[in-house]
Amino acid sequence: MKVIVLGGLGIQGRAALADLASSPSVEAITCADMDLTGFDSKTGFFNTAKVTSVKLDASSKNELKSFLQEGADVIIDLLPRQFTDSVCRAAIEAGIGVVNTNYGYPIAGLDLQAKNAGVSIMPECGLDPGIDLIIYSQAVRRFDEIHLINSYCGGFPEKSACDNPINYKVSWTWEGVLSSTRRDARCIKNGRVVSIPGEKQHQSDQIHAIDYPGLGRLEAIPNGDAVFFTDLLGITDTIRETGRYSLRWPGWSAFWHPLKQLGFLRDEPVSGLPCDVTPYQFLNKLLGPKLQYRQDEKDLVVMVNVFEGLCEGKQTRRTVRMLIERDLNTGLMAMSKGVGFTASIVAQMMAGGEITATGVLSPALDVPCRLFMDRMAERGILIEEEEEILD
Predict the structure, then answer these.
(1) Helix H segments across 123-163?
(2) Cα-atom radius of gyration of the chain, to the nearest Å?
(3) What is the DSSP letter of 126?
(4) C-beta separation of 331 from 209 below 8 A
(5) Pairwise CA distance, residues 266 & 93, whole Å
(6) Which has the closest alpha carbon to 162: 218, 245, 213, 204?
(7) Spatial CB neighbours of 36, under 8 Å, sequence gap ≥ 6
């Protein structure tokens, strides 16, 4: 199979390239990016014999469309979210399936066009959303009736790398981290849908803690629309509690809550300055460079999904855990492996005929969970499952 990776030299893109290059079923890979500077140094940790690099300006509709019409079996889109719509439209015209890691809400309207073209579009296919949604699909099949789904995921430094006041370093993009700190959340508590505005996300009454084996206590912050996914799965009517939470070392919310109150994440320019600069832009440029990993430091990715409900007539709790660590030999971040490997596996499933549905799909409905878990295990990423009877 032939695979195109858009944004192939980004942090996540390199993980996808490495995974594709090691797959016997992949014959050719096209790495497309705006800037190919340092291609050899960025890809020097794996065999690039299958890889062809192409300079591409994805902001040019004509250039993007012309490039995709050259043909491939599947596209992995790892470009920033503002390109998602244009990439998917160009892929539909070219008749090529797409896997991307961004939220699917903005492209839901392309479903009919994709179906008519016989094209599969799989958004939300990274770490979170992505792996968690695939795990959701398995739980829905195992339970007779689900009452609780709480999903936790976060990337942060190993303890020895926590050498700054917020115990955090950047394993994807700092602008993406800042954006997520403003994201509204929607959850269900005691059977009622509750909306949590982004400005209240880090208040003490909104956060709680969980314990992860071997790591200890982690802080859980509401982030994202949990109800959207229970609606998608058709189980909202039986849900008494659901939420999606970001995980950090304790103290994260104590840092961000006062900054939000003081307006440090606002988009309005600060008056009295010689140029238009917003507090958000200032924090992005100031803190991002200060929060980078050294080559000898590991990032960690922790994911926990908790399900409760009726299983064979008994009240049951099912807990699914995953821990990924950075590979210091290749330099691949844990976050990159979680995102890039997932996109690569699902893209290969699509190109190989293991996923055949067309339209705008979802990992929660359209990715075979057990097969996916087996493929992750082959890559050294284990997803552990634990079940207990609550009666």
Answers:
(1) 131-142
(2) 21
(3) B
(4) no
(5) 39
(6) 218
(7) 9, 53, 55
**Residue 332 is encoded by which pair of tokens?**
């691949």
How do strand 74-77 and strand 51-55 relate by DSSP bridges?
A: unpaired
Of 95, 99, 141, the residue nearest 318 (C-alpha)? 141
Block residue for tokens 């807990």: 319
Amino acid at 187: C
In 3-state terms, what secondary structure has residue 374?
A: helix
Q: Is the peptide bond before 250 cis (omega within 30 degrees of 0)?
A: no
Angle at 184 between CA 182 and CA 188, to 5 degrees: 145
Amino acid in the structure at residue 374:
D
CB 252 within 8 A of CB 219: yes
Question: Rounded to 5, what percent of the chain is helix, strand, coil?
Answer: 35, 30, 35
Q: How far apart are CA 156 and CA 217, in angstroms?
A: 13
Write out pLDDT tens, residues 62-85.
Answer: 899 899 988 899 999 999 889 999
Contacts of 216 (CB under 8 A, 6+ apart): none
Amino acid identity for residue 270 in this structure: V
Separation CA 7–CA 64 (nearest Å)? 12
Farthest-apart Cα atoms in the chain, separation: 68
Are the beta carbons of 122 and 215 closer than 8 angstroms?
Answer: no
Report residue 29 as tokens: 């890979």
Interatomic CA distance for residues 261 and 169, integer angstroms:
23
- DSSP classification of residue 182: T
Tens digits of residue pLDDT in 233-283? 999 999 999 999 999 999 999 999 999 999 999 999 999 999 999 999 999
Q: What token pair was written down for 202?
A: 């880090």
**Which secondary-structure segment (H or E) carries 6?**
strand 2-6
Would the CA dihedral through 35, 36, 39, 41 be positive or negative?
Answer: negative
